[in-house]
Fold this sequence. Notes:
TIM Barrel, four-stranded parallel beta sheet
Amino acid sequence: MAKNILLEICVFNTATAIAAAEAGADRIELCENYANGGTTPSYGYLKTIREKISIPVFPMIRPRGGDYFHTADEVNIIHKDILLCKELGFEGVVFGLLNQDGTIDKESTARLVAAAYPMEVTFHRAFDRCKLPYEALETLIECGCNRVLTSGQMPKITDGINMVKKLVEQADNRIIILPGSGLNSSNVVTIIKETGVTEVHTSARIRVASSTLFRNEQMPEDFDLDFVDAAEIQRINTAISL
Length: 242
């Protein structure tokens, strides 16, 4: 059977993005700073990836870690970064904005979606921190978002699978529900069958040892690097192709 489920891989550096594309990713979510949940890639990072990767790439547009309420200045930064991604020829962007009361920042989201066009827009897991998720989904549809990345408002998709299923039913093909967080080759088929999703998201993240030869023993720190498990990507692709 031909593969009909799209596999998006979230990456946090250039080498990982290239490796993920070579391993069979259909789309890349491009981020920096795993520890902060992902922030906007630098210009050099963006430019290099655009030159080296031909599959669709959606950069994360998030000016800082922390909460998902953004000031006017931060929204302006997001707007400028979206325009930069459009100029560089990316296929989509990923962002998410909430009001202080936990609702979707509808005004800013709609304005940024319009600025991003014709790029696609994924509303990221800020959705998992919002209140009234089913009302929030309607708001995102009204704003023109193409998809929402969610684990069903739980830390792992396996715990939020019932909500994801309900969101897919509510969406009724008006917006794509993209499940992520804790998705892997051992559970991806179950998640697809139970929810009816057509796209899936994972980082397939592993840690690899640094090649640095010298370390100052007075400055203990973690030099290991984020990378991608190419074999896991291939296992997921095999599972979703059966």
